[in-house]
Amino acid sequence: MLARRRSDLAVAALLTVWAALPLLLLAWAWRHGDVLTGSDGALPGGDQLYYLSLARESGAHVLFGDRFDLGPVDRVGFNPVYLASGLAARVGLDPRAALWLWKPVAALVLAGGFAAYVRGFRLGRAGTAAALALALAYFSPLLPVLDWAGVLDPFQRFLALLVSGELMPAWQLWGYTHAALALGAMAGAAVFAERALSAADRAARRRAVAATAGLGALVALLHPWQGATLALMLAGAAAWEAGDPSPAAAPARERLRSVLAVLVPLAAIAAVLVYLLVLSQTDPHWEADGRQSEAPPFGVGYLLLGFGPLAALAALGVPRHPDGPRERLLLLWPVAAFAVYLAVSNSRFHAFQGMSLPLAILAVRGWRRVRLPRMAGVLAVAAVTLPGLAYEIDTLRRSVALDRNPYYLRPAEARALAHLQDRRVTGGVLAPASIGMAVPARTGRSTWVGHFAWTPDYAARHDQAEALFSGRMPAGAAVALVRATGARFLLSDCGDRPDLTPALRPLRPAVRRFGCATVYELPAPAR
Description:
527 residues; mainly alpha; four-stranded mixed β-sheet; 23 helices; 4% strand; globular
């Protein structure tokens, strides 16, 4: 037992180092005077600035609303991770650190949950190590080879990266710690679900049912795609158990108890999923997020590129006669995840997260059936993990070089945002999307355009804001746009912007300059 704990802690320590790597890379690329925004994801988009805004909202109000619009803020969302971060920030911790401190926690949960699940299949020391490495860090080596060879155009690379990246749980530690927590909790829920379905002792079954329900609800709240996958796994395992025709099946009464034991976790998961579904259908901002995050199914080529190397071996490891809840849940996991991928349209690729765990176990079994030398197995594991780790580092390097993600603020921009935070008058902000992403997190104010998914009509607003702040919009249209948004402040960033004072003269703005950044404050509207 002690050796297992040490092993889990060692894996968690390695994952923590990996999780901290983006911060080290961003510090290495730091220019004197720049300010880290808190964004540490490898892809552009500013998701981490959105999470910082959720933390700020949750710390102040428990529930959070959409700050990427200037309409009323309906606080209807809840997330325990961002609530804890927001409360920590309120008592004096730097808000960015309040999110970054989840990295070691998520690494420990991810390592512990995955290790507990893998050990249940008794693969031996070498098999367990190989399965755990594949489950945590699998990344198709085909993508780095094709991209570094110049075969893929940027759009093809992005689509291929979505498939391969989502299959790599360790990547979630780069800016998506809530997803890593959900994956670790999901693996733990699967362990307890097997116990709930197979335990002979009533007290043990009750404990397993409670643990499955609690972890399942947490998974659904943190990442609903995995919550839906877990619900389908439980329902499928219960149906399989109830209709088991084999002579070795448990008595009918015992199987009925197992089926009934699954109902409690299913109800807990369903309650959270229904809550989120109601929000997506009734709240305009949640509905806009669902609409703007819609993604069509990937082409077969992208799926083969991402899944191919691991799925080929996993197919060889599928048992001919899967007996017992553990084996059935193992087989149901990838089937349920793919069903969620096909059924939903909102960021459907998130359903791939966690699939590497069951596929890794099946792949280790498949490798053993091939009966190749152990050293060949070591090289195979290295081939489908190490190039992917290097590729993710290169992806972050490219994103920082492109300067499309707000990893840094110029000193003038940071001072302008601090001014907006300190002003004791109410009102939202109109700014270019590039800095608008940071407005809610840094100031607590709403912004007219910011995050691509949570800003209503994002594409149109992005273009209008760019036309305004670049000086390409006629003065009359500029005044009309500012009035239509209802913004109290305009924030011009350091992106070589012209002076907007002449165009905004009919609005009588008070102008405050902070070097290359400018804040235009409009008079309070007449009562």
